[in-house]
Amino acid sequence: MVVVVTAPFHAPAPEWSHVYRDVLPMHLLETILLLGGTVLLTVVIGVLSAWLVAAYSFPLRGAMRWMLVLPLALPTYISAYTYASLFGATGTISLWVHDLSGFRPDIVGLPGLIVVMALVLFPYVYLPARAVFASGLREQLEAARMLGARGSRRFLRVAVPLARPAIVGGAVLVAMETLNDYGAVKYYGIRTLTTAVFRSWTGLSDLGSALRVAILLLLLVVLLLWWERRSRIHRQQATDAVPMVRQRLTGKRAALATIWCLLVLVSGFLLPAGKLLLDAFTIDRTDTWAIDLIALRNTLGIATGAAFLTLLIALFLVFILRHERKSWTHGLVRAATLGYAVPGAVIAVGVMTAAGTIDRQAGLSFTLIGTIGLLLYAFTVRFLAVAVQPLQGSLTRQHSNVDDAARMLGASPGRIFLRVNLPQLRPAILAAAMLVAIDVVKELPLTLILRPFNFNTLSTRVFEMARIEQLREAAAPALLIVLCVLPPLLFLDRQLARSEG
Amino acid sequence: MRPLLLLLPFLSACGTPGAAPTDDTPAKEVNVYSHRHSDTDAQLFKAFTAATGIRVNLVMADDDEVLTRMEQEGANSPCDLLITSDAGRLGQARMRGLLQPIRSAELERNIPPFLRDPDGHWFGLTMRARVFVYNKNKVRPEQLTDYNDLVRPEWKGRVLVRSAENLYNQSLLAAMVAHFGTETALAWATGITVNMARTPKGSDTDQLLAVAEGIGDVAIANSYYVGKLMSSSEPEKAKARENLAVAFPHMGPYGTHVNVSGAGVAKSAKHLAEAIALLEFLVGEEAQRLFAEGNKEYPVRPGVAVADVLQRFGELTPDTLDLAQLGLNNATAVKLFDKAGWR
């Protein structure tokens, strides 16, 4: 992280004036448009779905409740490629529509990308919104109902404002995922800050300029995070965990609710996953499966390793936050968790540069780069936030009374953490481990750059096949990614559901 | 116990070859950083190991990231051989001091001089041409003899080509800059942009499929993508196979723009002899034939047959421009694309 921030100030950036004048403006504009559109759409889809599923009873509600989480199993670039192969200008469904009607749909473009990304990312808003709607608002909503407010009014005027911090939190995650994406954005021809980073780096061979654009990216994220904190501070968090009483829908309204949920589920998950299944089983080459299975083993290995390492560091950070209250601890944690906002490739370069420096200073006879250890370290830098958040969230719910009692009995902070805090943190630790693992399985650019020899992961396989335009062969590893991510995802959702009642 | 169990898959994935051999005899191996296709290469590396007993360790990544990685690794870099899919990057690798010159009669005899570095820093292994692919029901080949033809007004709204972010387009424009200067190159890029049927999106193959669909009438694409499309058996590509044909445009007095996929020995190479052995193997008959047949690329070795499908396209007269120029002019090309509005 330190390298990325300090490099622009002493790295040469010969092409900067060109980048600044001709490249940045359009890229900045399209980034903001993409961000705005995607966030807006994810909030609409996520909040609406969460409300329906939490507040009402309708056919298939039970299944929809957890199935609406499924799109998270699809990495954005896979969903984007699959949609392009169906609805692109020469896509299967587009051609069919064209034959029937003369109209040629083409999803590849900014509006299309916004829709595709929103369909895959909305669970980030759906999940927290659902949690709040389902178990935090009963009394307020009851009060509103007794005052005569209709359903939609209760929703808009009571539920949504009270859930705002959760919704904003989810929206910020969506924004960060959108900013970070490279594969989907590049394929659809959209110019974002992230593509500008790569453009300067590879097209203009100007790493210095690339890093400066990365700084700009970081600033944007810091802005977003600051806005999110602001919205949290001035709001009272609804804290009671009383489960909602659901209102039964009938007739037309019930049908509408079911149809909406089905539509979201089909377009967000079933359609792309179905296409992947079809492609995976219609290729006639069997030798690629063997390579893919090895990639599967490698993917599971690094996911586990990264989860382990990240958790270790996250626990340490959370320990500091809890027991060593100094003025700089908050800043330290926040800085350490910023990695989530930086594109994977930029982190890879930062880590590579740092490792190169260490190699030279320490006079090592081998290079750190290309070792599994460095790869795992880079994952930690990138995904620390993902582990810290659930741990911190759970820890704040532990009253400090017990800590204080232990301290008065003479226990050191370390001992308190190990014997008092840690056992209660166990569900959060599991959740954090799974979240990191899921992210590592889906990750691409960082793995691509830092991996050791002969090391393929499922995502690098998808990338390589897509790069040589053999999208059919990319379907099998893509499907394996989805299958890897599904179990932990659904498990996490069950945990959440249990706490929602 | 549970945490330890979690570590198991992680440990098994750690067993990667490369730095330390597991037995006492030094393992004969060569470490390759590559930005090429995976499958035919995998076959070739296996054949190489079977023939020589030298193991090939492979890392694949994007061109510039590989170069940056090599730079950071410095003298400790385990890379012995760098393989790229574009000559420009090889030139850059040389400029950044990442390659070392080698002499090999075998390589010099079997690779034409314009397809390798004069000082032996890098060697082209396969050749690819950037050609025009057109709808034969709507276009006559006589209309497409020069790259400049597509700039004419009659092509407005009919040209399909991928984004300027792609290396192959950048190399094409870099070649124009080398031959004719920035003004002419800019004029060409601007002319093409004006004539585009749609804003660039998708891959080379997408452009070809779009021509078959009537979205445009001519596409600019690399020869091996056309070769692969024309010899594929997928039903969705049938329309393309039946309606498309290839033209080899000239660049003024020069031939058709070509590029190479090639390799160079890393300066930090610890397995020098093995790296050279692999290079010579890749330029040998068996390897060149596999490149030609398996990947539909043009072999560099004289005497190796070009794939049937490519032969049917017509005769290729390559531009013999010194390919190091492609790397030198790449940044200029990118800036010209920006000026022309070619996305």
Keywords:
heterodimer; A: 501 residues; mainly alpha; MetI-like fold; 2 domains; two-stranded parallel ribbon; 23 helices; 2 strands; globular; B: 343 residues; alpha/beta; D-Maltodextrin-Binding Protein, domain 2; nine-stranded mixed β-sheet; 43% helix
Structure, explained:
Chain A is globular. Chain A has two domains: 15-282, MetI-like (MetI-like fold), CATH 1.10.3720.10; 283-501, Orthogonal Bundle (MetI-like fold). Chain A is mostly helical and 501 residues long. Chain A is 78% helix and 1% strand. In chain A, helix 2 (16-55) runs parallel beside helix 7 (123-135), helix 14 (287-323) crosses helix 20 and helix 14 runs parallel beside helix 23. Chain A starts with a helix and ends with a helix. Chain B has 343 residues and is of the alpha/beta class. Chain B folds into two domains: 27-127 and 260-305, Periplasmic binding protein-like II (D-Maltodextrin-Binding Protein, domain 2, 3-Layer(aba) Sandwich); 128-257 and 315-340, D-Maltodextrin-Binding Protein, domain 2 (3-Layer(aba) Sandwich). Chain B contains 15 helices and nine strands. The longest helix of chain B has 14 residues, at 39-52. The model of chain B is unreliable at 1-25 (pLDDT under 50). Chains A and B meet through helix 2, helix 5, helix 11, helix 14 and helix 16 of A and helix 1, strand 2, helix 3, helix 8 and helix 15 of B.
User: Which residue ranges of chain B are poorly predicted, with pLDDT under 50 across at least 5 consecutive positions?
Assistant: 1-25
Specify the CATH homologous superfamily of the largest domain in chain B. Answer: Periplasmic binding protein-like II
Number of strands of chain A: 2
Shape of chain B: globular
Could you provide a short overview of the structure?
Chain A has about 500 residues and is mostly helical. Chain A is about 80% helix and about 0% strand.
